[in-house]
Amino acid sequence: MNLRDLEYLAAVGELKHFRKAAEKCFVSQPTLSGQLKKLEIYLGVQLVERNTRSVFLTPIGEEIVKTARTILADAASIENMAATFSDPMCGTLNIGLIPTIAPYLLPMIVQPINEAYPQLEIILHEVQTDVMLEKLNEGILDAGILAVPIEMKGLGEIILYTEPFYVAANNQHLFATKSSIKIEDLKDETLLLLEEGHCLRGQVMDVCSQTMTKERKDFQGTSLETIRHMVSTGIGITLIPQTAIDYKNLIQNSSIKYIPFKKPAPARRVGLLFRKTSNRKVCFEKIAASIQSIIEKEFSVDEVVEVLSVKMKR
């Protein structure tokens, strides 16, 4: 048994597909399948159940994969420890971002961070909050960028920025004539929300909980862009975080009006999470400082408003 065997098994456990697992491990499918068969013979137990339609781990396979992921994370940590001993800003870093942050933050930060730290290979993963926390805990991800606070032991947190919510409404809506909106103004409005699993859904519901806002039950969006397009048709309103509005190409949509809230504006805090046991803390701190600087430059002082942070629902 060696680390490569465990890597194959972990890939099959994650992807539930031999070909995709082989591609992830940069080997042929017969090689991966053959090595897993040898591992099963060596251990004396069946790890993977195969049929013509699906592939999945057996119960003992699931348990072994949990340990295998820890072992692989520890092995990667040793390699990174050696690489970062002389330079903390080199090596490979796996960072997860939630879907309501990734499309808007990444275009602002990827190039500046790559230019600032050319020896650092950052691999980005777009995942929802629950999946991100699971992968952080298993060592698959080194850090995650998401809405905070998060109640989970063993994680460190660096606040990156706080962004206010805006009301997004069709330009024919009554709100389109307003320069600002109070939360109470949302009473009796029809609200368009993301589907279950997105933390932003819970945050928007928290903001609107004190009003009689109605959720449109016959529609739940898979992304902010889907929600945005539906708002443009006039079937409802939604709340959009600032970074998803001010990104240069998005604010050009003339069919939607974005209206700020009166102070204190409801907002979400975005942070970078990492395992407290990680040896990459210096690296996380430098990346966080870069993101903070970029956000400060991207959003002028005139755009800064007094905000009321919303506790995230998971």
Automatic annotation (TrEMBL):
Pfam families per the UniProt record, alphabetical: HTH_1 (PF00126), LysR_substrate (PF03466)
PANTHER family xrefs: HYDROGEN PEROXIDE-INDUCIBLE GENES ACTIVATOR, TRANSCRIPTIONAL DUAL REGULATOR HCAR-RELATED
Residues covered by the HTH lysR-type domain: 1-58
Organism lineage string: unclassified sequences, metagenomes, ecological metagenomes
This protein's record includes keyword DNA-binding: yes
Gene Ontology CC terms, in alphabetical order: protein-DNA complex
Name listed for the protein in its UniProt record: HTH lysR-type domain-containing protein
Family affiliation: Belongs to the LysR transcriptional regulatory family.
Sorted UniProt keywords: Activator, DNA-binding, Transcription, Transcription regulation
PROSITE patterns from the UniProt entry: HTH_LYSR (PS50931)
SUPFAM superfamilies, per the entry: Periplasmic binding protein-like II (SSF53850), Winged helix' DNA-binding domain (SSF46785)
Matches recorded under InterPro entries: LysR_HTH_N, LysR_subst-bd, WH-like_DNA-bd_sf, WH_DNA-bd_sf
GO molecular function terms attached to this record: DNA binding; DNA-binding transcription factor activity
